[in-house]
TrEMBL record:
This is Histone-lysine N-methyltransferase SETMAR. It comes from Rhynchophorus ferrugineus (Red palm weevil). InterPro entries: Transposase-MT_Hybrid.
């Protein structure tokens, strides 16, 4: 019984490269109001791949029509809780 995967036809997962991640990050930093559909048109990759890069690799999300890091949201919530608890 062989448990190894054989070679498969199809496209390799070459979208998640450091080059593409850096390009997407620069695009978002340049224009935080950039929509999710504008990025794949520029880079010629699928929207779902761009979504995955933004959320998993860059740890960002859309808030009030702007891309922000997830840690920023967490820090804001933490500050708000500390203010409420001190009052």
């Amino acid at each position: 019984m062989n448990t190894e995967d054989g070679k498969r036809s199809g496209r390799p997962k070459g979208v998640f490269t450091d080059k593409n991640i850096l390009k997407i990050h620069k695009m978002i930093l340049y224009d935080r109001k950039l929509t999710l559909n504008e990025i794949p048109d520029t880079l010629k990759i699928l929207t779902e791949r761009v979504y995955h890069i933004i959320h998993e690799y860059l740890c960002m999300r859309k808030l009030c029509a702007k891309w922000v890091p997830r840690e920023f949201i967490f820090d804001q919530n933490n500050d708000e809780l500390m203010i409420r608890s001190s009052v």
